[in-house]
Amino acid sequence: MAGILEKLAAGPIREEMKRRVDEIIRAGAEWSKTAKELEATLNRLIEAIQKGNPIDLKPVNAGLLKLAKQTSRLSKAFDDHRKTLTEVLAKLG
Questions:
Q1: Predicted local confidence at residue 30, as pLDDT
Q2: How far is CA 56 from CA 8, 10, 50, 90, in A?
């Protein structure tokens, strides 16, 4: 069993794993940037709606608040995964 693990951690398989982890890290970084922009836009829209606060816009406001929270949670999840993958990649060398 140890021999199989050594083979997995060496050579072309290791390089492929490293390449894929790098791709995931880059995708996470891109999502993080996009999500921050989306959060900022949603928050500005929420503020604009709350200032006028017409009764017809209450459902829109509630939906935007939910979307902003979910976007924030997803951003945190991507950041956590990125950190984990970075640590794993560092251990692989």
A1: 80
A2: 59, 61, 12, 53
Rounded distance between C-alpha atoms, residue 60 and residue 66, angstroms: 10
Tokens for 75?
């951003």
User: What torsion, rounded to 10 degrees, do the Cα atoms 77, 83, 86, 90 define?
Assistant: -150
Map out the domains of the chain as residue ranges: 2-92
Q: Are 71 and 39 in contact (CB under 8 A)?
A: yes
pLDDT above 80 (res 58): no
Assess contact for 68 and 46: CB atoms under 8 A: yes
Contact 73, 32 (CB under 8 A): no
pTM: 0.50
- The rounded mean pLDDT for the chain is 77
Q: Which helix (H) or strand (E) holds 41?
A: helix 11-52
